Amino acid sequence: MKKLYRNMRLFTAVDNGRALAGAEQGKISELKNASMLVSNGVVERVGAEDEVTKGICGRDISFEKDFGGACVIPGFVDPHTHICFAKRREDEFGMRLAGLPYLEILARGGGILSSVNAVKETDEEELFRRSERTVLAALSKGTTTIEIKSGYGLDTEAELKMLRVIERISKETPLTVAPTFMGAHAVPPEYKSDPDKFVDEILIKEMLPKVKAQGIARFCDVFCEEGVFSVEQSRRLLKAAAAMGFKLKIHADEVNDLGGAGLAAELHTTSAEHLLAASEEHLKAMGEAGTIAVLLPATAYSLKKPYANGRNIVDWNVPVAIATDCNPGSCFCESMPFVFGLAVMKMNMTVDEALTASTLNAAYAIGLADKVGSLQPGKQADFLVLDGETPVALAYHAGSTSVMEVYKLGEKVA
Questions:
Q1: Which stretches make up the Amidohydrolase-related domain (predicted)?
Q2: Which pLDDT score is estimated for 103?
C-alpha cells in the first residue's frame, strides 16, 4: 500500500550522481504545494499533486496526511561521529574552560585514553544502551542517517566490540548507520616509542583482517595529525585498507598542515574531515579528486578555535558536507540543526549550501547517496517537517531546533 503526503513546501538538493560542488552546492529545488507518494518506505513520486496522484486509485492509498503548507526537507545525514562511547567527559570540559592545558588534563587521566579505558571496562550491553540514548537524541533533532566510528578500543577485541555495538544501533533503532573502523584514532601508550610497529603489526596485520572478516565496517579512517599518525603511516594503513576492499576516510590537518588533505587527494579518499589547517593547494586538489570536505563547526565552537573557512572551500569547488563530530571529549553535540546554524553564521555558507552539506553531500561522504540525502524517486522517504517557512528557520531559530516532526521510511519516528 501507498502513503500520500500532500500540501507541503518541499526543499531538496537534486542528486545528479555525484556530490555537489561550487555553485551547484547552492542550488536547491523548491516545490510549492508539493505532494509525495511513498511506497514501502521509498519515494515513488514527488511533485505537483495532480502529477503525483495520476493513475492512482484512492483505495491504493492506505494513509494520507496534509501538512498544511509546512516546510519539508530531507532527513539530516550526519557523516562524522564518535557517538559510540561509554562515558562522558564533562569534568574535562570544565577543566578546559578553566584554562587547563590538554597535556595537564591528560596527566590527570583525561583525554582520549580515558574514553578508551571506559570502553574496555564497560560490557557490550551497557555500551550499546549508553550509545543508543545519544543516537536517539540525534534522531529527535532530525538525524535520520548517521556515520559512527570505532576508535575508543585501540586493541582488536575492543574495536570489534565497538563495531558490534554500532551494528546493533543500525538494527535496533530507526536510523540508517554507516559503520567506520578507526583503530587508528590514537597511538596506545605501549606503542608510543614505536608507532610504526602499532601501524604495521597491529593495525595492518592484525586488526584490518579481523575487522574485514567481521563484515560490519564499510570505511577505514585514520587520524593524520602531528603527534598521532604521520602522512606516511596513514598512507600505509589506508592503502592496506583499500586493498582489502574498505572505502577510505581521513581525519586531516585539524591542528597542523601536515599534508593530510593532500594525501586524501592522492588516494581519492571518499572524504577528508576537520581540515582547519589544510592548505589552499591541498584543498583544491581534493576538489579535483572528488574528495568531500567534511567540516565540523561544533568542534571549533566547543574548543574555542577558529572555524574552517567554509566559504572559501565551497568557492574552490570542493564538495562540502557538515557533521556534528559528536564525541565525549572535544564536542558533545548530537544536534545537526545547531551545526547547520554554525555553518551559516560562522563559516559563511549560504542556507542552501548548508542544506546540501547536511543532506546530499553528507550522504555521498558515507557512500549512501543512492538511498538517502534527497527527496527523489527511488530514495528512502526520510524527511523532516520544520517550524518555519523555509530552511532559513534552522539558522534563524537560534538555541533551539526548528524540527517539528521526523519521518523515517515514511513513518513518523519523532
A1: 72-407
A2: 61
348 is in an annotated binding site: no
Q: What is the pLDDT of residues 152-198, one digit of tens each?
A: 999 999 999 999 999 999 999 999 999 999 999 999 999 999 999 99
What HEC string does the chain produce?
CEEEEEEEEEEECCCCCCCCCHHHHHCCEEEEEEEEEEECCEEEEEEEHHHHCCCCCHHHEEEEEEEEEEEEEECEEECCCCCCCCCCCHHHHHHHHCCCCHHHHHHCCCCHHHHHHHHHHCCHHHHHHHHHHHHHHHHHCCEEEEEEECCCCCCHHHHHHHHHHHHHHHHHCCCEEEEEEEEECCCCHHHCCCHHHHHHHHHHHHHHHHHHHHCCCCEEEEEECCCCECHHHHHHHHHHHHHCCCEEEEEECCCCCCCHHHHHHHHCCCEEEECCCCCHHHHHHHHHHCCEEEECHHHHHHHCCCCCCHHHHHHCCCCEEECCCCCCCCCCCCCHHHHHHHHHHHCCCCHHHHHHHCCHHHHHHCCCCCCCCCCCCCCECCEEEECCCCCCHHHHCCCCCCEEEEEECCEECC
Q: Do the annotations mark residue 361 as ligand-binding?
A: no
pLDDT one-digit tens code per residue, 288-341: 999 999 999 999 999 999 999 999 999 999 999 999 999 999 999 999 999 999
254 is in an annotated binding site: yes
Query: Please, what are the domains in the chain?
Result: 2-75+373-412 (2.30.40.10), 76-365 (3.20.20.140)
51 a known binding residue?
no
pTM of the model: 0.97
